[in-house]
Amino acid sequence: MEQFTSTVKSQVIPLSTTDMLTGVFNTSYVVFYQNHSATDDFMPCEQLKTAFYLALQAFPILAGHLKQTEDGRFSMVVDKDNINMPEYLESTSDIHYKDIKYAGFDKSTWPSGVATVGLTLAPDANGTIKTANVHIVRLKDNSGLILFLNIIHCVVDGFAYFAFLNHWAAECKAMRGGAVETLKPVVEFNFDRTIVEQSLSTERKQLDAPTSSVFAKPSLLSKWLAWLSPETRGRMLSLFASLTKSETHVFHITDGTLETLRSSVREFVPEGMRVSDNDVLVALLSKTYAQALNSSQESGGNVVTRVVGSIVSAVVGRLFGAEEHRETGIVCDIRPRIGIADKNYIGAPLILPLISSPLGDLLAPTTADSLAGIASNVRRRVDSLDARYIGTYIDTIDSAPSFFIQPAFYLVEHPAALLTSNQSRFRMFEADFGDGHQDWVTFIMDRPGTIIFMPCPPPMKGVNVSMCVEAPVLRELLVNEFWMSITSQIS
Fold first, then answer.
1. Which of the two ends of the chain, N or C, has the fewest CB atoms closer than 10 A to its terminal CB?
2. How do beta strands 325-330 and 354-358 pair?
3. Is there a catalytic annotation at residue 432?
4. The pLDDT value given to residue 480
């Protein structure tokens, strides 16, 4: 630890506007390693810990305190005389690695307390928000190890998270190979938040209606939450999150199946339009989740309630011309869109544009034709996210002190809205601490309707779809003929 603390320099790092959008969340993953060789010195605890503090030298921001000013801006304050040391815990379990692996790494098989924090950023028992949390769990007979790492989201997004994890692993592997000095990163990490603002276009483009509506009428509650300190706000939101009952499950789609589906959808999109795997996946999950959610809600009430509800909805639609819509949020990394993809920028340069789809289209039977309509809308929205759009999005956030919390609050106000994040290109399976790469990685989430597209552990090909749902919705997913015909459930 002293190797790290002696290098800390006091500094204030103002966070960018996009960092602030994620200021109520954590970025947490659970990583699983198997002791394939059954060696006694498998991922030694002391070397893991020493390497962690060596890795921190390249990420001094993780020793900072999160501060919020009256105008709603965030900063990370690093004080060499008051270092906010990451929490680092170690424990053992009498559960064998194979029992977890054979169950598809289902959360019900994990030791209790693996994840020491949840998705919502909140203070610890001492009232301090830790910038990072680590929990190392060594499994029965040294059969494997579970590594939980959390970093607050306003400091890193998924790309930056795995940059740190992989650097930590490289430090450990080098140390075990005889290295005595801190491993210099192949590329220097860039923490300069001004790079985002400096890379924006001077031109602006109007936001689309669904995304603009997020900021149109902020409620008194959202303004109040934005006004609170990060610690108090975290306590409030954590309490709210604890009231939701959700499960996380993983489904696998093979490369061949995804390519076949994309080819089928391509036949129905406008001529010349490019359709990506992500476009198809977002369309597929938008429809599948809406269908499962609707079916679970219908089956939850009595016949009279369902009939009356249908009649009221039909009458309102005819009288006012209203058609119910459902929104899908697409987490978008702006690095390549403002020209900083090659800068190794460590932050959370994310925005959340929305796609709005008529509920009738979502509930219609899933076919290549019906998927094409939604996939086309996804492609149009994604193509519109240029530097001018991003500039307007950031200007909008900056126009009011409470607007940084609006995207997150929108998801609370609209529980039926879907949130998607494509992480399939993250360097998720490259953290070798000296005994081989991880077998499995899972993301900690607790908001129902959150969907993560994740890479598969080698040598598996395709995409894993990790979804946070309520139990009634899962039951409907498992009887959705189209969904189950193209996926296999892992956990």
1. N
2. antiparallel
3. yes
4. 97
245 Cβ contact list (under 8 Å, min separation 6): 470, 471
Is residue 231 over pLDDT 90?
yes
Residue 185: pLDDT band by 50, 70, 90 thresholds?
Answer: low
Give the pTM: 0.93
Alpha-carbon distance of 447 to 331, in angstroms, equals 15
Among 280, 289, 233, CA closest to 374: 280
The one catalytic residue in 153, 167, 249, 252 is 153
For residues 441 and 432, the answer to whether their CB atoms sit within 8 Å is no
* Terminal Cα-to-Cα distance of the chain (whole angstroms): 38
Backbone angles phi, psi at 324, to 5 degrees: -65, 135
User: For residue 297, what is the enclosing H or E element?
Assistant: helix 277-300
**Which residue do the tokens 């005819």 mark?**
318
pLDDT at 391 over 80: yes
* Both structure tokens of 415: 């529980």
| C-alpha pair distances (Å), 362 with each of 159, 375, 450, 466 | 31, 12, 17, 20
Q: How many CB atoms lie within 10 A of CB 480?
A: 17
pLDDT of amino acid 146: 98
**Residues recorded for the chain:** 491
Q: How far is CA 284 from CA 277, 290, 295, 483, in A?
A: 10, 10, 17, 8
Instruction: Estimate the crossing angle of helix 220-227 against helix 230-242, to 10 degrees.
Output: 130
How far is it, in rounded angstroms, from Cα 318 to Cα 320?
A: 6
Please confirm, yes or no, whether 153 is among the known catalytic residues. yes
Helix (H) or strand (E) holding 77: strand 74-78
Task: Identify the CA nearest to 196 among candidates 403, 383, 23, 18.
Answer: 18
